[in-house]
Amino acid sequence: MEKIHYGQHVMIFCIGNGESRKDFDLHKLKPFGKIYGCNGLYRDFTPDVLVAMDYNICHEIYRSGYAFEHPVYLKEWEKNPASLYEKLFYSETATKFIGNVDPKEYTDEWVWKDEKKSFFVCWANNVDMLRKFREENTEWHEDDFKLHFGEDQEGYKITWTKKKDKVMGLGKYQQEKTNAGVLIAMMAADVDKKIYLIGYDYHSKSKQVNNIYKGSKGYVGPKAQAIDPENWIYHTKRLLNKYEEHEFIHVGENIEELDERKNWTNISYEELNERIKNNKV
After folding, report:
1. For the chain, which residues make up each domain, given as ranges?
2. Distance CA 116, CA 98 (A)
3. Among 88, 176, 179, 251, which has the highest number of CB atoms less than 10 A from its own CB?
4. Helix H or strand E encompassing 57
5. Is 7's pLDDT higher than 50?
């Protein structure tokens, strides 16, 4: 990723996928700086920097063709030579990775028409383990299973790659054990000192998950249980500790757990719109 020195000011807007932003027009931000986004954002909007963490969304983005038109950082994306493909279907290999099933019946494979099969990316989920997990967690709603534990997640997910894609590795960020929203904020903070955080809701207003893409492929279902924000808040505190001289401007409802941080301020969407209107972003 291009490094811009602090003397060369570039406004950066990081876009989370909380439902608070559903009525906000992200295109209004374009004239004011660069936009960093993550995961399903690419479906509705093209940011300057897109990061995807989960294997489901990584494969979806690549298969959509987005990665041939726009640069994208994919965390779960390790290419394997075609010579390894057949080995996935050897009995001992398949049993180890996806369980005691017919691997041909449990393979979701994407092949590009008229493209030589040189490299592929593969993710494997053990069928027996997923079934056992569902049996042991009967109190879960089926929508809670959809992201990682549903029947459609069983087996191999294989995507063949093409030449001249714009997929990039995360470099020094690859080993960061955090979520996509905090990761793009870290990447932004290494470029500039003033960062807007939009769609970073943390809390849910109901018992259901707060995500603008819930119910779509690669996400939990609409009735999935709300996620405890403790982990997100913990990683945000780490972000604020690391970049103490930065200004992080959170847009949306106030996050009490972060109130006392000197490098964290909170504004409403109405105030953001006013800043945009008056060219004072």
Report:
1. 11-73+170-277, 79-160
2. 26
3. 251
4. helix 55-64
5. no
